[in-house]
Amino acid sequence: MANATLPRPGAAWLPGARSGPAQPLAGTPHAPAYLFWVLVAYILLEYTRPPVVSQLKFQMLVILVVPVLWLLSREHIWTRMLTLHTLFLVWCAKSLPIADNYFSVYVTSRNLFGILAIGIAITWVGSNLRDLRRLLWLWLAVMTYQALWALTHGGHGTGGMLGDENDLALACGTALPVALVGFERMSGRARIAMGVMAVLMVAAVVASFSRGGFIGLVVSVVYLVFSSRHRLRSAALIAAAGLLFFAFVPKAYLDELRTIQDTDEGTAKGRKFLWTAAFNMWLAHPITGIGGANANFQIGRYQPESFEGREYNERDWSGTALHSAFFTLIAEQGTVGALIFALVIAHQFSLIRRLRRDVREREDVPDDLRREVEAFGVGLNGSVVAFLGSGLFLSVLYYPYVWYFTVFAATLDLAVRRQLAGLEAPRAPDVAAR
Fold this sequence. Notes:
The protein contains 16 helices and no strands. By secondary structure, it is mainly α. The chain has one domain (33-262, 322-423).
């Protein structure tokens, strides 16, 4: 019987693609087949929130079982990104015995553990490039569903961490860059699908009236233009899209955006007040921070006295959100936590930069694999940029998005390099059947 040849890294995940599905290389560890569908079920339940079914807490069961399955597996797939995520979790949990509100630290650490467990599942399942493609398309499909829901429900999502307008804008805005780069780099029905998804996500951000979501959209688009191989063409397309955007969006939305520049009154002044309090927390606890989710409860102790107005001098602001992922980070996790977080972001951009370079330099890489490395690699970087842009004004540090995107990026690097190794492997000569 003839030996099986290594599969070509095909485009079976693309709508209408002709090639067969890419399988994991022989001899490399991969997740059991059922785990892919478990992860699919988790994502659908957690990020679409179907009535009744989501209340069965299947998601919690997945979070508890995945690490056990991983530990019991014969070969443990791990990446440096997961190591960094684990370090951040451990650093957050270290405040349990020292924080004023230890229960908030526990809840935050439990949340980060759940994100890490799903990150392990994504890495394990996604080490098979075929399944990684499917997961990325699933994520885009779920966020498109949220966009459609927002357009028919006043800018709100389906609930949970997607119910609030700002949270909905964050979710759709961070998925948007992958759809935009996919529209630029892909072809055929895949390109059409990406384009439709991108339009719906932009419309959802507008429907949310979220200024933080708009800022994330803008900074991610700027990043994508500078990351494009055809910067002038991309800039021209974005400029044209921008003109259409401002020509057709509601006047009320434009009026809302104009308030961003009012930095000395209204909500902007309140944010500066809260950020100053957060900075004071960091000054008091520069190394360790005050503990996960403790900043809201501690604002009254650290609020500044230099702001004019009765609401700033006579009111205790304890219990108010800081409205910034960055100030939450330094106040609650201190300098060490901020450095770990910075390493997470830097590691993703370093991985994608090297992966794109190595794929460009190889002549034996199929065109479809080149396209998806560019589309998903640059798109995931854009997603992180969008998160950081929106996170400047939203308290979203412990939301899963940036953690998932960095895991997806590290898993993309792992899966593609397996495919590249397969291209280098010599093929055994066929043996005639006897």
